[in-house]
Design goal:
Elements lengths: L4 H37 L4 E5 L2 H11 L3 E5 L14 H8 L3 E4 L7 H9 L4 E4 L13 H6 L24 H18 L4 H26 L8 E6 L3 H7 L2 E7 L10 H13 L4 E5 L5 H10 L2 E6 L14 H16 L1
Parallel strand pairs: 1-2, 1-3, 3-4, 5-6, 5-7, 7-8
Length: 334
Amino acid sequence: MRRPARTVDICARRTLALATVAALALSALLAACVDDDAPAATADRLSVVATTTHIADFARQVAGDRADVTSLLPPNADAHDFEPAPRDVETVADAGVVLRHGMDLDDWATGLISESGTGAAVHVVTDGIIPIAGDHDEDDEQHEEDEHDEDEDDRQHDGDDPHVWFDVANAKIMVENVRDALIEADPGERGSYEANAAAYLVELDELDGWIREQIATIPEENRKLVTNHDAFGYYVRAYGLEFIGAVIPGIDAQAQPSAQHTARLIDLIQEENVRAIFTETSINPDLSSRIADEAGVTLVDDLHGDSLGDADSGAGTYIEMMRWNTTLIVEALR
């Protein structure tokens, strides 16, 4: 017996509805599979672990969207006394390539890398940079009349100054080393890494020229720098400033100044007509503030040194950081 037309129509609609539901269910299932596979898809991207924020930024500039980059050192941190967290061991263990600073700045990473058991290649990105000695506080020492009376802790530490990035020419060498490390780890993307690095190196040349133009606006007699610790030697040498002294003697911000050193620094600031004392966001400014008050000069306490700032700080990338520091220095000394 033939079914009435209306019954056939209802059945047809039900069949269509069931087919539609099945199709939607299949689509949802496929979408879920895609979502589940999303983390796996990132496995095709190179995992880069950098010990410092500067190196991490260089790696991001060179890698573009071809890598996931992690910095062990967080923003606004002091690299000299950083203590890795247990989770950092796993981060290094999963790395495809590890980028280190070297020059004793990130010695804390040595045990971390060993403990992680990572099979990733470890590259020191400061290779090829000619360092300046860690005791380059020579101008201050020349002014010391009773140097033999200073406490042992007030003397300069031996070793090379690791703050090489404050000369843009050195930053360019670091970028080239990062480029080569990424190519070695991910040779299939050589073209992308080379193109990205080349474009970024042009930006760094422009940055270097801009810094020189800005420093040139400071009267020559005012181009004198006093900092919280001796971290700006490369900047001083590259851009024509004179280093007068540091609140904390030496390249390690954890050193302790003697009373004699502090008193002599105040005298130097006044004798040399220094206009300001500069310190970094990662360092307690209390001692610098007291010295600035006693010497009658301005305190600028928001420079960035061992690490970059947060993303919204105005110093979240290397180029932003160098522009930020230069602007503050120029405004205070001009």
